[in-house]
């Protein structure tokens, strides 16, 4: 069946495929804007400034704000949640005022950090005073609160059923949510365009696989064309 399916597809040689690719004209300015969008969104302020000078591509956001945004992100990633909250409010108090889910996740992260440091009594008090009322106001938060508080029931917290909350990935998740909220408040896209374009490439190749045999890109990191297996 596989060979029959292959025989019904058009075979495109490498020379023909490369010729077709060269016929596609992409403006350098568009590529530069795509690169700048990635650098700005991901927070590479030094690289963005250098690229601005080298390419003449102006970012659509004040580069100074990237430094402030990255300071907030780093505070969350370091477990300094209160410092992150203060920095967010310095940037724009409306970010947390208008985003109760984000504020809840920051408070949840703060509780996780207290548990990580072994401050059990302080963690219990914080959960009761700060998180419990939010669970009553929003049932969607209740399950997350219960999982976090459940960490207190285990002696070996890291190896408990909810030990994943103490992983660095949890901090990164909260930091990414903060980063997206700040970008949105600055009327900037919260996600860079480049990863979306790469996903579109994968989707397009998968669609084309049904109709043709052609040199495809299997490794996105190198973008090297690989001849199909005949």
TrEMBL record:
Signal peptide: none annotated. InterPro entries: CRA_dom (IPR013144), CTLH/CRA (IPR024964), CTLH_C (IPR006595), LisH (IPR006594), Ubq-SigPath_Reg (IPR050618). Residues 65-122 form the CTLH domain. This is CTLH domain-containing protein.
């Amino acid at each position: 069946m596989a060979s029959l399916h292959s025989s019904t597809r058009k075979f495109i040689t490498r020379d023909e495929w490369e010729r077709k690719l060269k016929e596609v004209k992409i403006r350098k300015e568009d590529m530069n804007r795509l690169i700048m969008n990635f650098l700005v969104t991901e927070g590479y302020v030094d690289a963005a400034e250098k690229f601005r000078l080298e390419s003449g591509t102006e970012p659509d956001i004040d580069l100074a704000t990237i430094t402030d945004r990255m300071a907030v992100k780093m505070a969350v990633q370091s477990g300094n949640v209160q410092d992150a909250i203060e920095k967010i409010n310095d940037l724009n108090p409306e970010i947390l005022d208008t985003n109760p889910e984000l504020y809840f996740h920051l408070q949840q992260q703060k509780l996780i950090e207290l548990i990580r440091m072994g401050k059990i009594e302080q963690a219990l008090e914080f959960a009761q005073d700060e998180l419990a009322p939010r669970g009553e106001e929003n049932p969607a938060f209740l399950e997350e609160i219960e999982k976090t508080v459940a960490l207190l029931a285990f002696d070996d917290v890291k190896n408990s059923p909810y030990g994943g909350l103490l992983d660095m990935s949890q901090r990164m998740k909260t930091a990414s949510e903060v980063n997206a909220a700040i970008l949105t408040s600055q009327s900037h896209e919260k996600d860079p365009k480049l990863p979306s374009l790469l996903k579109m490439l994968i989707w397009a190749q998968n669609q084309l696989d049904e109709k043709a045999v052609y040199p495809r890109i299997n490794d996105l990191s190198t973008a090297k064309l690989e001849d199909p297996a005949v």
